Amino acid sequence: MTPSSDVRAHRAEGAGIGVERQTVSRRAILRKALALSGCSLFSSVLAAAAYAQDAGSGPAIAALPVRTGPRPGAWVVLLGTRGGPGLEVNRAQTASAVVVDGQPYLIDCGYGALRQMVASNVGYLQTSTIFFTHLHDDHTGDLAALLSYQWTNGKTSATDAYGPYGTARMVAAAVDFFRANVEIRTADEGRTVDVDKQFHGHDVAAADAPVPMFRDERVNVTGIENTHYPARSKANMPHRSLALRVDTEDRSIVFAGDTAYSSNVVKLARGADLFVCEVVDPTVLQQAQERAKEAAAAGNPNNIFRHVADTHCSPQDVARMAAEAGVKTVVLNHQVAAPSQGTIAYPATAFIQGMRPTFGGEVIVGQDLMVL
Predict the structure, then answer these.
(1) pLDDT digit string, tens, across residues 225-247
(2) Which of 14, 56, 105, 193 is deepest in the core (most CB within 10 A)?
(3) Which sign, positive or negative, has the C-alpha torsion 308, 311, 312, 314?
(4) Domains in the chain, please, with CATH?
(5) What CA–CA distance (Å, rounded) separates 242 from 255?
(6) Which are the contacts of 59, defined by CB distance < 8 A and separation ≥ 6?
(7) Separation between Cα atoms, residue 117 and residue 36, nearest integer Å
(8) CB–CB of 214/287 below 8 Å?
(9) Which helix (H) or strand (E) covers residue 297, if one does?
(10) Half-sphere exposure in the Cβ direction for 149 (13 Å, CA)
């Protein structure tokens, strides 16, 4: 499943931030994203979105290449790369799309994902398969919006979501959230699509060996439990967290999900072309450890600071997993950076340097709307 060298060279060109490539223009990202597929039914709206994203530097859409169909092969679009449940106006929460011969598959759906799908030309109306690594709200926050606007804006085929325990219940709850909209439009507009038959959630078992999750003519998706939830927490709840592997005809892509170092993730990622992994700056983890001790001393041993310190990856953790798995390229996602040291490139540089010398392969620090 390793692509030919010429395909890899084409994909790498201008794709993002690497060891020697630490800046990429918003316009370049949008050009690559808008060229991905002919998925959208509303090209004029997407053109306007591209123009708005490039405001102040002329109409970006004027230079876009003309394409008559989807770009072949498997591509990864980083829709949102912000780590954690905090909100920003210029970055979306965690969500990615794997687009195979023009068909999108969504990986997580954090707040802002729907807007990013429109901005990147990843067709939200053509998205029929969603995968969740886990059910924290920074990975699920836009699900109800996505399903609601699929129904309202004319999608008639089914949409299926796959994830750990609680996914089926979450999808049903999302449908209940916009049920009033369905009832109103059904009575007032003559709608006929049965929303309860259109959207389905599927719970997938979490295990220490890869579990089949989904397969069609384009992708084969497997999952394995990672280490985002410690044993002390799992003893009191049925919820679990997964890493996902998407194998296509020409590429293998692993999404580690939120996790600390995990031998299971290493097992799943063996030989992958792309390893998409979360990262937290070590100083943030150290501060979390200190505050966790303070909270525990005050009588709250299971606190958010302990969660951050115990269940997330430093650059060194990412490098260790990548090296042990023998992956070709690491894509840093779900990023939590330390305060800037006076230059916008600092977080990217710090993340990359933190992975050396354990991992010697290509490292790309993800940005929203980056195409790989």
Answers:
(1) 999 999 999 999 999 999 999 99
(2) 105
(3) positive
(4) 5-371 (3.60.15.10)
(5) 9
(6) 51
(7) 12
(8) no
(9) helix 282-297
(10) 14
